[in-house]
Amino acid sequence: MFCAKRRRFVPHRSRYLVIAGVLLSASLFSACNKPREPVTITFFDSDFRGVPGDHRMISDAYLQEFSRETGVRVDDLPSPEDNGAKLDLAMDFLRSGAPSPDLYGVDMIWAGIMADYLIDLQPYFASQISSQDPELTASNKVQGKVVAMPLPEQPLDVQVLVYRADLLARYGYKTPPRTWDELEKMAVQIQAGERAKGKEDFWGFIWAGAIATDSEQLTMEGLEWQAAEGGGHIIEPDGKISVNNANAIHAWQRAAHWVGWISPPSVVSYTAADAENKFWVSGEAAFLLSHSIVYEMYTQGTPFRDQAGVTSVPAGKSARVATIGGYALGISRNSAHRAEAVKFIEFLLRKHAELIATHAENPGRKGQYFEVPPVMMEVYPWWCKPGESGGSQIISRPSTVAGANYEAVSKAYTDALHSVLTRESTAPAAAAALENDLARIMRNGASNGRAQPATGSH
């Protein structure tokens, strides 16, 4: 009896399973034919602060074009105004393991801090990475992993020397200076000549000598000065500290000598904006140490745009070097839309290539350009003229080797250099003290440094 009932139950249950399978198949078929919601990737925009007219890392036009091409939307997330707050918020997102933001704007000095939370981009962009300047790759490479790609719409930002071509011609100079010695001689002559004409506030050479909590400008300048003399890179890739040596000390002493001679005494309190206004708006300087991106901005509508040219940072006895800055794009290791994020970076690289090709065929404007950094020939091909070469090579600040300690390293460095520029300390004493400070920071962590964060590129 039991066996008979069981035999009758088995086929009855099978019929329900068959019916359930048919219903499930129909349900799945129906779901597959429903229109899918468009994928949205989120982008932590390290330049966008959500105020009217504010600059963004990527234009709305590109975001919309990408969406039309792929069906993938990109939400451009605003970030705080303060650079330190930007980094703090980005790290809060990354450490939380949140699946968004998918993409992050990575300041070049943040790579070492953010590296553990970003994917390695080498498998996706091997050919593009292999064609980059090695120093540029090194700036975004941490423990063998390339964590960010330079942002095409905000390309590499390199330190350059901007000069008044009209004044060089007036005083008999056919080309801008190639060395710091040449710059000093030209600055002295032009400064004296212009003051003789009644321009009492005219100076030969302007730069930003202030300590600013939201700027890396003085760190970048100091690194260029000492590296050009063979004084090292503050902290070498192997961790060796290189500040307390004769070449670095000589470079600091030379910069201190400029103050009150070819640079105004107040240059030690100049921000980058102060220096730019002195050159571009007031027209009271022959030479300006600045950024390539700033040069592009100011030549579009300032009183001295037609008289200004650009060249590489002058050389010391060892090399002609320029520091690099700017933002790159990284993809969160927790992103739920990694494939779409990769596709977005591919799109931006293609748009940049199209832009370069257009400008190469139709240069945007004429001007005075000479011996620009070779890497800039790829970014701004309209800067270059046939036969020009010999510009500076780019160098990186020691952010990847310092990692989470970099902010304290940078601040300690600017404190020491500034004390020499203001003559509060001698260069030998400041360099020796700095060497001890950096050793302590790298050994025990940033909490033992005497610094507040300095997290901006510019």
Explain what this protein looks like in three dimensions.
With 458 residues, the chain is α/β, with parallel strands linked by helices. It is 44% helix and 14% strand. Strands 7, 8, 11, 12, 13, 15 and 16 form a 7-stranded mixed beta sheet that branches. A 5-stranded mixed beta sheet has the order 2-1-3-14-6, with helices on one face. β4 and β5 (145-146) form a beta hairpin. α9 crosses α10 and α16 packs antiparallel against α17. The longest helix has 31 residues, at 2-32. The protein is globular, with a radius of gyration of 28 Å. It starts with a helix and ends in a 14-residue tail after the last helix. The model is unreliable at 1-31, 361-365 and 448-458 (pLDDT under 50).
Radius of gyration: 28 Å
Could you describe the largest sheet, including whether it forms a barrel? Answer: 7 strands, mixed
Structural class: alpha/beta
Number of DSSP strands? 16
State the separation between the terminal residues, measured CA to CA.
89 Å
Shape: globular
**Amount of helix:** 40-55%
Q: Look at the structure and give the mean pLDDT.
A: 84
What are its keywords?
7-stranded mixed β-sheet; about 45% helix; globular; about 450 residues; disordered C terminus; alpha/beta; about 15% strand; disordered N terminus; single chain
